[in-house]
Slp family lipoprotein (Dyella acidiphila), 169 residues
Amino acid sequence: MHWSFRPLRWLLPVAALALAACAPAPIYPVTAATVTVTPAQAAHAPEQYAKGAVIWGGSVIEVRNFPDHTEIEVLAYPLDSSQRPQPNAQGLGRFIAIYAGYLEAFNYPNGSLVTISGQLDGSRSSAVDQAAYVYPLVNVAQFHRWTAAELRAGHPDIHFGVGVGVGIR
């Protein structure tokens, strides 16, 4: 007897399409001006990426308000296809997002996940604890704080296994 997968061949494209439909679309468009560089790379060669557009995201470290702007220090993480930060991945360096105006720090607590689009605008030397550090600066065009529901979106609540389970929501 010869086993063949031909009757199931249609299942693979349907499954792939269904999974792709679950993932939300990117929130910011990638344009020809968008540079694909990490914050660590931009910090080492700020003149090379001067005025380049970036879409970066990560975890809020600190929010500082000034009279005419707000600075958000962010530890960058890789973004998924929907531009959600992936905090379980290796960090990509820190950056400072400069928002023209006031942001309530209470609404962006440490650890909040954010995605920003903006334009690189040089760098600033400072310190992380006792270590010297160079932060790329990004003038924010758009800024998004991810909610728990948005982070779960596109991840079906389906679990496979053997046994008995109890879930409470």
Q: What stands out?
A: The domain at 26-148 is CATH 2.40.50.140 (OB fold (Dihydrolipoamide Acetyltransferase, E2P)). Residues 4 and 10 are 13 Å apart (CA to CA).
